[in-house]
Design brief:
With 360 residues, the chain is of the alpha+beta class. The chain is 20% helix and 38% strand. It is built from eight helices and 21 strands. A hairpin with a 6-residue loop joins β17 and β18. α2 runs parallel beside α4 (135-148).
């Protein structure tokens, strides 16, 4: 299943020009608030009509300005989850879930409701009304309602924006499970780095109404030249848990450049994870330090030295098949005489575990 978007729309002084493709898995529309992300998903859903372009789902155009095609929202077979969930307060959870069937022309497979309820952990909530649910529970019900409409595409527009950290973590786990279970494109809108790194297979970076970058999450979220768009640069690394030290709450992760020792990893041995190493958390040394508290020290080669910005420079260091980035002062870079090809040691001071993946 695929989604193709190539549209333009003027919104006052704001010009939206967006083109990308999405397949199975999660495609994240990522960027600052006001970049145009919600306008894009509204256009896909049929809520906002583009001035020009095409939107194609599984080979079927649902919008084509040249051919005069603009399929009505209910006929597009799209599941849409908003920031607030938008549940009906007078209906209980079971009735809210069932409501989606009113707009689905596809027959419901036997046991479909039970599978969705199990996938999203809703069994204990079915008789409760939205007023008696937490924010995270409401969003899980909203996602379940969207799935029960048998969509061929799922849109999630900042679904965690109104939740606290605990509820966000709760819902993220269910979205990860859903990502592995359903085989349809999921377009996930967010300006939160940790959500995008944890969930996305593909990232579409949206800036001022246009696509600034598109590619695999590891590639886009690690680009130092895009750090001023919506996030600071760094490296996104796919790894695997190979050891757990329960006494000290430490885990050892294996990746293409060696091993990382990190804390608070709720994952089993052999399980894949995705981690983010921020550029500001990587230091550089010309010799391997001794008697130091930092446990993650890697021998690597300077691959690139970025442009100077306000006395700061990003240095890319290749470690195995992974490129780490270090943000240091220009003075430090000159004192160390850093040039491409120089062998150095990268000292990783902190690691953020942003994704627990079951995809392997």
């Amino acid at each position: 299943m695929t989604l193709t978007v190539d549209i333009e729309r003027r919104l006052g002084a704001f010009q939206l020009r967006i083109a990308f493709e999405a397949g199975e898995g999660v495609t994240a529309l990522f960027g600052r608030s006001g970049a145009g992300k919600t306008s894009v998903v509204n256009a896909i859903a049929g809520i906002l009509r583009p001035d020009r372009g095409r939107i194609v789902i599984n080979g079927e155009p649902v919008f084509d300005s040249e051919r005069g095609i603009n399929v009505a929202t209910p006929r597009r077979r799209i599941g849409y989850v908003f920031q607030e969930g938008r549940l009906f307060p007078h209906l209980n959870v079971r009735q809210n879930l069932r409501y989606s069937r009113l707009f689905s022309r596809a027959p419901e497979p036997s046991g479909h409701l039970d599978r969705v309820v199990a996938l999203l952990g809703l069994a204990q909530l079915l008789e409760r009304r939205p007023g008696n649910l937490s924010g995270g529970e409401k969003q899980r019900v909203a996602i379940g309602r969207a799935l029960l409409s048998r969509p061929r595409l799922l849109l999630l527009d900042e679904p965690l924006a109104s939740l606290d950290a605990h509820r966000k973590s709760e819902v993220l786990q269910y979205i990860e499970l859903m990502r592995e279970e359903i085989r349809i494109p999921i377009v996930y809108v967010s300006h939160a780095v940790e959500e995008v790194v944890r969930l996305a297979d593909t990232v579409v970076l949206v800036s001022a109404g246009e696509v600034a970058a598109i590619g695999a999450a590891e590639e886009v979220m690690g680009r130092s030249d895009l750090r001023t768009s919506a996030f600071e640069g760094g490296a996104v690394i796919d790894a695997k848990v190979i050891e757990q030290d329960m006494q000290h709450d430490l885990a050892t992760l294996e990746f293409d450049g060696g091993t990382l020792i990190v804390t608070n990893v709720d994952a089993l041995i052999g399980e894949p994870v995705r981690v983010r190493v921020r550029a500001r958390d990587v230091s550089i040394a010309l010799e391997r330090p001794q008697r130091i508290s930092i446990q993650n020290i890697f021998r690597g080669t300077v691959a690139e030295i970025g442009p100077e910005r306000g006395g700061i420079v990003d240095v890319s260091v290749t470690v195995g098949a992974v490129t780490l980035r270090s943000r240091i002062t220009v003075r430090s870079a000159r004192q160390l005489c850093l040039v491409p090809g120089l062998e150095v040691y990268a000292l990783v001071k902190a690691v953020s575990l942003d994704r627990r993946s079951g995809s392997g």
